[in-house]
Structure formats: structure tokens, C-alpha cells
Amino acid sequence: MGLNHLDLAIIGLYLVGITLFGLRFRKKQRTLRDYFLAGRDIPWWAIALSIVAAETSTLTIISIPGLAYDTNLTFLQVVMGYVIGRVVISFLLLPHYFRGDLYTAYELIERRFGPGLRSLTAGLFLLTRAAAEGVRVYAVSIVVSIALGTGEVTSIAIITALTVIYTFEGGLAAVIWTDVVQTAIYVGGTLVGLATIVHLVPGGWAAIHTAAAAAGKLQVFDFSTSIWIPYTFWAGVIGGTFLTTASHGTDQLIVQRLLAARGQKQSVTALLSSGAAILFQFALFLMVGIMLWAYYRVPSAAFGKPDRIYPTFIVTRMPHGISGLLIAAILAAAMSNLSAALNSLSSSVIMDFYARLRPGADEKTKMRLSRVATVAWAMVLFTLALIALHRLGRVVEVGLQIASVAYGALLGVFLLGVLTRRANQRGAMVGMLFGFGVELYLWQWTHVPWTWWVMIGTAVTSGVGYVASSITQK
């Protein structure tokens, strides 16, 4: 069926509208505190929605339905770990972040260990966040190229350019408040899409439920003890807990939002409430995949790759107007995630490196360079997205794998810092290098599922770091 003028008008209206909305915040960016922390004056509910938006990228919206199409609901076990990880962060890490005037997660590392380890952790964040974000930007091109018929390179360029405009001008305030709007758009759009699929399947929900139950598609729990299965109860809950403790407790992308709260209590409230929202969202996107399976009843290979199933359904089967709304919803998730990545990468470069190398630089110079860094990172992510065009498999798993490679090393160092006073900088560096090396080995040369990588990397980093610290103590 394809998109018509109404759909294209809705998509165009969204792209222009969200860009102009983000630009409304440009006049408020007078200091680095404004640009990178939104003046620490964001209410908890807006931060919660922004965290959800950061966690719900285009990878989630197009790849999670593809995952459910091929399998079942067992990915929800990982999401349960996401919720538990938030509780751990609230008690273990957040109190440390609110002792002092921190801009980045890695300032905490310098305060505990020293400047060398701060540079190492920040550098690892920059490397892996950029790589993972490149895959996410590539995922946008899948949707745009199917919907608009533009080439993948052109699709990536359009979304990147529009996102840079308001992120460049509006800083974190623009990122968070556009996240709030975009979350409402993609959740509302997905709910409309869900209702439309139910209407299109003969027999409605009753027929979908019967077919899915008979095929084992509604299975949530798998208590298998095999470590080679990625989505078991143990791998999901334990692995998901470690993954989220690392991603939301040591990754500047999320920590930056938590630091923008009006205080520790509001930050905790935002983090915990985002957990309930994310559980609902993943269940929603997984159910979309189950319903699409009930509608098509063909192997995912018929679409080329599973990530193309949902975008193809939107463009070819949805009523006009609704299809335009859903494409706009997917773009909303993409732009919110990209804007957050650009701002967090820029904040780490300026605060973790430039401000330390040039302590005498004035605020105006640092603000100007912050914007330059935003544009530079946009170009880097654009390049990485082009490289990701050649990646195979479900993009959501590729993105999670890349992030997981670094998270164990980062979390291990943070735990050494907050749980023991015996660890020192030299020992922590040794542990971090060992942990990162082990995770690279797991990624490239083993079949151990990615759900276990962060836990293994954390254990190696903290264990080796503690022993090395004991050996190197004077």
C-alpha cells in the first residue's frame, strides 16, 4: 500500500515540530551547568520519561518485535533484571553522585582513585558509547528507507542533521524535554498500532492468543540452567541486573540525566519509576511481535531480516494516517536517543578531558567548544552508522553486545571504589584492563551469551583489581 501524502505530511510535521520545540531552549544555555545539566532543575517525572526514551531506541521499537516474532516473551526476564538493577543503583551509587558538584560519572572515579583512572574510564565510555550509538543510528535508516524510499545513507544524514540542530543549541534541557514529547508520541503510536493489528487479524485477540499459546509464543519464564541460552530466568535476571547497574550507574548517557534532578531523592524517584515504565514498554513491543507473527505466519527470512518486519507492516498494511504516525513515533525514539548520546559524549570530552587540560579556560570558550564537540560527535556517529550497514543479525542484540563489552570493566571499577578502601588506582587500572580483555574475548571468540558478559567482566575487574591493589600497596 505504501505511504501517501497524509502520512508524509504527518512525518514532515513531526520532524519540523520537534526540531523547533528543541530550539526553544537555546536562550537558556548560558553556562556549562545549563548546557550539560539543565541547571539541575528538571522534575523527577521528566527525568524518568527521558531515561525511558534513552533506553527505548529505534533498536527496541523495530528489533524487539522481530525478536518476539522469531521466539517468544522470554526477553522479559532480562527486563526484570533491568528493574532490580535500578534498585541497586539507588542505594549503592546515587548517594556518591550527590556528594559534591559533579558533571560526569567519571569525576567520582577521580575523587576516589585519581585522574589517570578517570581518563581511562571516560575514554572507554566514549569508545563504546559511540560504537553502540552508531548501530542505533543505522537502525533508523532501516525505517526511513522502507517508509520514504530514500537510500540508507540519505536516511541517516537527514535524521542526524535535524537532531544536531536542537541538541547543538538547547543542550540537555532540549534533550530531556523533547524526550518527554517523543516518549508520548512513540508509546501512543505503538498502542494505536497494537489496536490496528488486533483489528486486522481475523478473529481478533482471541485468535491471536489461541495461536500464540499453541506455538509457545507466550512463554515468559525459562528456568533452564544452561549458560548457553541467552534468555533464561537466571541469565535474564542476573545478567539484566548487572547490565542495568552498569548502564544506568556508570554510563554518562544515563548518569547525566540523574545528575540533572533537583536532588538525590528526586533522582531516585525518577530512576525507580522509569523501571516500571520500561517493563511495560518492553512487554508492549514484544506483544507487537507476537501479533505480527499471528498475522503473517511466514518465516522472518521472507522479510530479509527480522528488523524489517514491523516497519514493513506499518508501511504496507496500516491505514493511512496511522502509518505516518507510527513512522513518526519510531523517528521520535531515534532522535531522542541520538540527541542524548551527542550531549553525553560532548559533556565527557569537555569535562573529563578539556577542562582538566585547560583549567584556565573561561566559560564562554568551554561553551563554544561544547557545541563544536556536539557536531564532531554527530559526524563520528554518522560514519559509524555507515559502517554498521554491513552488520548482520538483529540490531538490538548487536547494540547490547557492543555496550556489554565495556560495562563489566566500568562497573567493576566503580564497585572497587564504593565498596572497598583498599583498592588503589594502579590496581584498579590493572583490573579494568583484564576485565575489558576478558569481555572482548567473550564477544569475539566464545559462544557465551551476551547476557552473562557484564557479570563476568565485573567479577574479573573487581577481583583482579583488588588483588593487584594489595600487591602494589606501598
Mean pLDDT equals: 87
Strand content: under 5%
Order of helices and strands: HHHHHHHHHHHHHHHHHHH
CATH domain topology: Sodium/glucose cotransporter
Point out poorly predicted stretches: none
How many E strands? 0
* Class from helix and strand fractions: mainly alpha
- State the distance separating the first and last CA atoms: 73 Å
Q: Supply the CATH architecture.
A: Up-down Bundle
Query: What is the CATH homology-level superfamily?
Result: Sodium/glucose cotransporter
Total domains: 1
Fraction of helical residues: over 70%
The number of helical runs is: 19
Spatial shape: globular
**Main beta sheet:** none
Class, according to the CATH hierarchy?
Mainly Alpha
Defining traits:
0% strand; globular; 77% helix; Sodium/glucose cotransporter
Strand-helix topology:
Layout: H1 5-23, H2 32-37, H3 44-55, H4 58-70, H5 76-92, H6 94-97, H7 106-112, H8 115-148, H9 152-200, H10 204-214, H11 233-249, H12 252-259, H13 264-296, H14 309-317, H15 322-357, H16 363-388, H17 395-419, H18 425-445, H19 453-472
Helix pairs in contact: 1-9, 1-15, 3-9, 3-12, 3-13, 3-15, 4-13, 4-15, 4-17, 5-11, 5-13, 7-8, 8-9, 8-14, 8-15, 8-16, 8-17, 9-13, 9-15, 9-16, 10-13, 11-17, 11-19, 12-15, 14-15, 15-16, 17-18, 17-19, 18-19
